[in-house]
Amino acid sequence: MKKIDVACIIDDDPIFIYSVKKLMKLANFCESFMIFNNGQEAINNLTPILESGENMPNVILLDLNMPIMDGWEFLDEFTKIKAHKEVVIYVVSSSIDPQDKNRLKTYEAVSKFIIKPINVELLAKISEELIA
């Protein structure tokens, strides 16, 4: 299976980040990953990367509920960045609120909504979708 070059995790939960990194390694999912603990940290670091087109993430796993800048605010800012290529965003949240799902439909950049937790099979499916 071909690996994704760079995956980006934006989440404030250290346990979730630790487990997803472990699962990505088990699934042979990506060559490397970027990790940000909130949307503001992600925007500050991703903006120059996206604008330059170098070492861009292929996929972002985004939590909605975070301090400082939440996932919604991140999406609003992310859509303003002029990126050199499309970055696929999967919203990964523990929210089961139907309003969240409906609101996500207004963001073209969001590919799917995934309810936590993530497993190896799901990562394999994401990898297939991205590399196909």
UniProtKB/TrEMBL annotation:
Organism of origin: Neotamlana sargassicola
Protein name: Response regulator
SMART domains: REC (SM00448)
Modified residues (4-aspartylphosphate): 63
UniProt KW Phosphoprotein keyword: yes
Gene3D superfamilies for the chain: 3.40.50.2300
Domain (Response regulatory): residue spans on this chain: 6-131
Family annotation (InterPro entries): CheY-like_superfamily, Sig_transdc_resp-reg_receiver, TCS_response_regulator
Biological classification of the source: Bacteria, Pseudomonadati, Bacteroidota, Flavobacteriia, Flavobacteriales
